[in-house]
Model the fold of this input.
Amino acid sequence: MKDGKVFVDTNIIVYAYDISAGEKHRKAVEIMKDIWSTGYGIISSQVLQEFFVNVTRKIAKPLSALTAKEIVKDLLKWKTVSINGEIILEAIDIHNEYKYSFWDSAIIAAAIEGGAGVLLSEDLTDKQQIKGLVIKNPFI
Done:
């Protein structure tokens, strides 16, 4: 991972804990280790909420709520962007201009607010640049 702040979308973190995800699991674990070693990780309150729901309910072998809580507690050591009114308004502008869903636009807005240079996500357009932020799909 190059030097610089990296915002990590929910799906990357979920794959890191979803052992049934095969190659995506392996790659996500590698990404997470790299980000932990650099200290450049950024997430948002939205990502943490989505992570908790997904790993306790939607993966093949769900984690217990207590295990998921411990992971969230660890992830809170990263820079965490809280979704506030300004980010919501920015998300609406991104939604209107780039045609992403509101929720994806909120992820992008939080990444920008957090000062990330890169947003890792498999759900967004790879290599797209939005307001100085570069979106990268690490699974391509």
